[in-house]
Write a structure and sequence with these properties.
Blueprint (H helix, E strand, L loop, with lengths): L2 E6 L7 H14 L4 E5 L7 H4 L10 H5 L5 H4 L1 E2 L6 E4 L12 H11 L5 E5 L6 H7 L4 E6 L3 H14 L6 E9 L1 H6 L5 H8 L3 E6 L2 H9 L8 H14 L13 H13 L1
Parallel strand pairs: 1-5, 1-6, 2-4, 2-5, 6-7, 7-8
Antiparallel strand pairs: 3-4
Helix pairs in contact: 1-11
The structure holds adenosine-5'-triphosphate and magnesium ion.
């Protein structure tokens, strides 16, 4: 049976799709069969971030409408053969697809994969419920900003209505230089306010935004190590957290911090 993990946040643009894509790659590198299901219906970001937009023949809506079988809509990643994506659709009216449709699809994928990663849309309306309904675990993504934490807190309250076996926290876009200077909310306060276990901290990394804007996956950059640790934590149940501050410590780090302030 596959682990079915929904990646959610409440607030938009905090990095759900980025984290889903990088988790998919890292878990498949660890040897697992992974499928990422884009339930952000109407916006289809996951295939774009993965650089697979042009490979789409069928999508989630086609599966729901009975135009194809779920296997036919899966896109295999050319570089990571155990990684697949089930793309969302650009065009269909959202209300036509409900939680039971998604659940049927996920149940069909259950035996074929070790991990089913569900990329959830922003907000807490029907799209959110549709995505969470088939999951048995949730990753809540936040950034170190009050607005993100408030939204995530609301999401946590709603998630309590679902029968999830675990809810874990990932802090994205953490700035090591600002953490050291005290200009950013620290990790301990975020974890204390969210009251769920922390399984990853991903640094702010210019490489992430530059690769996602052209549709390629991250292979270098500060956050690659953080994504590897996050994937290992998810699989092994460990809690190894990436230290975003290490490159800003010591004399060289002091200059780096100064430089970062200037730009
Ligand atoms: N760690 C990071 N460092 C730098 N940029 C990042 C990081 N994580 C995400 N981004 C950038 O932030 C933007 C939003 O990311 P993403 O699309 O993954 O968010 P999302 O939560 O899925 O958004 P939505 O709610 O619209 O679905 C993208 O341009 C992405 O490249
Ligand atoms: Mg997204």
């Amino acid at each position: 049976m596959a682990r079915k993990i929904v990646i959610t946040s409440g607030k938009g643009g905090v990095g759900k799709t980025t984290i889903c894509a990088n988790l998919g790659v890292n878990l498949s590198r660890l040897g697992f069969r992974v499928v990422m299901v884009d339930v952000d219906i109407g916006l289809n970001n996951l295939d774009v971030v993965m650089g697979l937009e042009k490979c789409i023949i069928f999508d989630l809506t086609d599966v729901v409408m009975g135009k194809c079988r779920v296997r036919q809509a899966l896109i295999q990643h050319p570089e990571y053969p155990s990684l697949y994506i089930l793309p969302s659709s650009h065009s269909f009216t959202k209300s036509s697809i409900n939680g039971d449709h998604i659940k049927n699809i996920i149940n069909n994928l259950d035996k074929m994969f070790d991990y089913i990663l569900i990329d959830c849309p922003a907000g807490v309306d029907v799209g959110f419920h549709r995505a969470v309904y088939s999951a048995n675990e949730a990753i809540i993504v936040v950034t170190p900003h009050l607005s993100s934490l408030r939204d995530a807190d609301k999401v946590l309250g709603i998630l309590n209505e679902y029968n999830l076996t675990s809810k874990s926290l990932v802090i994205n876009r953490m700035r090591g230089d600002m953490l050291l200077s005290g200009d950013m909310m620290n990790i301990e306060s975020i974890v204390r306010s969210m009251r769920i276990p922390l399984i990853g901290v991903i640094p702010e990394d210019d490489t992430v935004s530059s690769v996602s804007s052209v549709g390629y996956l991250l292979k270098t950059g500060e956050s690659t190590r953080a994504f590897t640790l996050l994937s290992e934590n998810i699989h092994n149940g460990t809690k190894k957290i990436y230290d975003c501050t290490y490159k800003y410590r010591g004399l060289i780090g002091y200059f780096k911090r100064g430089l970062k302030k200037l730009i």
